[in-house]
C-alpha cells in the first residue's frame, strides 16, 4: 500500500509538472483585455475594426484584445452604468460628452506619461482629453458637418448648390415636390434626440448662436438661437423635409434620389455611395449654407476604465493603435477624415472618398455641441431644449416661447 | 415544554413541512424581489448618481417633494393611466371577443388557437422594431395599405404625432397582449357546464341573456385576475414604449417607467429615479388591493 501511494504521489507530481507546459497554462500567461466600441456593431466598419483588433492579437502573444459590441443607442448608458459599478470593459471608446461625465466621476484612468506621442503629432482636439494637465484618453475620430446635395436633382430643378442661406432656401424650395421628393432632410423625432441635438446645433451655430456663454450661463433664448430655430421650424412647416423620418429613413430616401440635400457628418457620404454606388458621382459637398462658418463637431475618444486592473496591457494597446501605420489603417477602416493624429488620409482613400478632403478643410469650423461650462449637464440641457423645439414643430408653440421656457428650465437644471 | 419534547418527528414534520417546502421560493423571492425593493426604497431617500453609486447622500423626503411638485410627473402619471386603462380594456375586449369566437368554432380550432398565440410569444423588442417600420410615415406598410384604401393621407404620422402616438402604442400593446387574455378566457368559457346553457335556453334566454346570466358570471373571476395582471404589466411596460417612441413626441407617451429610465440612466439621478419607481410600486399595490376588494365583493354577492 505504502509503495503504491508513493508511486501515486510521483505520478501526480509528474502530471502537475507536465500540465504547466500545456496550452491551458500558456493561456494563463496571456492578459485578456476587453475593448468596447459601438462601431463594432456597424455594418462594414464593424468588420474593418475587428480586423484591426485581429491584427493586434496576431502580433502580440501576451495580450489578447476581445471586442465588446454594444449598439450606439444603448452604448453610453450601458458602459457608464457598468463603469459606475466598478466593472465594464478595460478599454472604452466614448463620445466626448460621455467621456467628460466619466472623467468627472473618476471612472476613466489617468494615463499621463503613459501614452507615447505619435511621430506625426496628435490632432489639435487632443487637448480636449487633457484636464488640469492630466491625460484621460486619446482621440479616436472626429468629424464635422457639411452640406451634401444631389447634383442631378438640383440640375433637374434648375437650382444651384447653395452657398448662402437665401440660396439654400431657394434650392430646397425648388427641389421639393410634395411627398415624392424633398429638398432637405434632418432629424425631427424624439427617439433620435441625440442626433437631433447635433442637427439643430448646426442651425443655431450657423446663425451665430451658442448654448452657453463663456461663463457657462445658459443662452438658449439668445437672438441667434431664436433665428436658427425659427428658420428650422419654417422648413418643417413648409414640408421641405420629410416629417417624422428618422436618419435611417431619410438617408435611404437620399440615396434613392428622393431627397436633394442633407447636412450631415463625414461618414454619411460613404453610407450613400455604399448603398447606391450610382449616386457617388452626383454628390456635391460644401460648407453649411448658414451666415456664420460654424458647425457641430463630433469628437470620439478612447479611454481606459479606472476600475480595470489591466492598465499596462491596455496602454500597450493604445500605443499600438497610435503608430503611424495603424493610424493609416484605422483611417481607411473608419473612412474618417480625422483621427487621433495629424496624419493625412492616404491617397487611395482620398481617391475613393474625395469628400474627406472637403470635410478636412472645414474642420476648423467645428464646435462641440456640449454647452461650454455646463458639460456635465449636457443630457439634461439637450432634453430640455429638444422637448421645447418638439413643441414648436408639433404643438404650434412659438419659437420664442419655446426657447424662453427652455432657458428657464436650463437655469433650474444648472441652479442659476 | 414537556409536550414539545414528547412531539414525534412525524408531528413535527406535519407542522413545519409546508415551511420547508416554501423556504426555497421565499428565499428566492426575498433575494430577487424583497432586497431590490428595499434597496430602491432606501435609494429614494438619497441623492445618488449612477456614476458614483457608492457616494450617496441622504436627503430625506426631498425627492418625493420634488416629484410631486413636478408638472412632468403629473403629466406622466396621466399618460400612464391613459395607457394602462386603454390597453387593458382593449386586450380584455378583443380577448373576450376572440375567446367567444374560438369557443364556437369547431373547424380548425387547434390551428386557430396556435396561430393566435404568436403575437404573445414574440419578443417585445422584435415586435417594437417591426412596428417601427410598419408605422414609418414614408415606407411603412400601414400607411401604404391605408392610403391605398383612401383611409388616410399619404404620409400619416403615427408615432410622431402627439395625437396618434399613444393610440398607436396602445394598438401594438393590445396586439401583443390580447392572445394570452383570449386563451385564458377561453379556458374559463370551456368550464361552463353545457347543462346550464340548455336550461337557460329552455327558459327562453336569447344569445345576449345567455351571455349575461350564464357565461359572464362564470368568467368574472378570470376577468378580474386578467384585469389585475394586464394593469400591472401596463404600469411597468418599458421595452415596447422605449423602442417605439422613447416617450415622444412632446412627451405624449412618457409614462412613469420611461421617466424613471431617463432620470436614472440618462441623467444618472438614481435616487430620483428610485422615487419614481417607489411611487409606481405603490400604484401597483393599490391596483392589487382594489382587485382583492372587488373580487371579495363579487364573491360575497354570489354566495
TrEMBL record, chain A:
**Is the Flavoprotein keyword given for this protein?**
no
User: What keywords tag this UniProt record?
Assistant: Signal, Transport
One GO term in the molecular function aspect is: maltose binding
Question: Per the UniProt entry, what is one GO biological process?
Answer: maltodextrin transmembrane transport
Q: What's the name of the protein?
A: Unannotated protein
Q: Which family does it belong to?
A: Belongs to the bacterial solute-binding protein 1 family.
Keyword Translocase attached = no
Cellular component (GO) terms are:
ATP-binding cassette (ABC) transporter complex, substrate-binding subunit-containing
Question: Which Pfam families does this chain map to?
Answer: SBP_bac_1
Q: Name the source organism.
A: freshwater metagenome
Query: Which InterPro entries does the entry link to?
Result: SBP
Taxonomic classification: unclassified sequences, metagenomes, ecological metagenomes
From TrEMBL, chain B:
Domain ABC transmembrane type-1, first and last residues per copy: 77-294
Where found?
Cell membrane
**Entry keyword Cytoplasm:** no
Give the Pfam families listed for this entry.
Answer: BPD_transp_1
Report the GO terms under cellular component: plasma membrane
Q: According to its record, how does it sit in the membrane?
A: Multi-pass membrane protein
Transmembrane ranges?
A: 16-38, 73-102, 114-135, 164-189, 210-235, 270-294
Under InterPro entries, the record lists:
MetI-like, MetI-like_sf
Where would one find coiled-coil regions in this protein? none
User: Keyword set for this entry?
Assistant: Cell membrane, Membrane, Transmembrane, Transmembrane helix, Transport
**Sorted alphabetically, which SUPFAM superfamilies does this protein's record hold?**
MetI-like
GO biological-process terms attached to the record:
transmembrane transport
Primary location recorded for the protein, binned into one broad class: membrane
User: This protein is called what?
Assistant: Unannotated protein
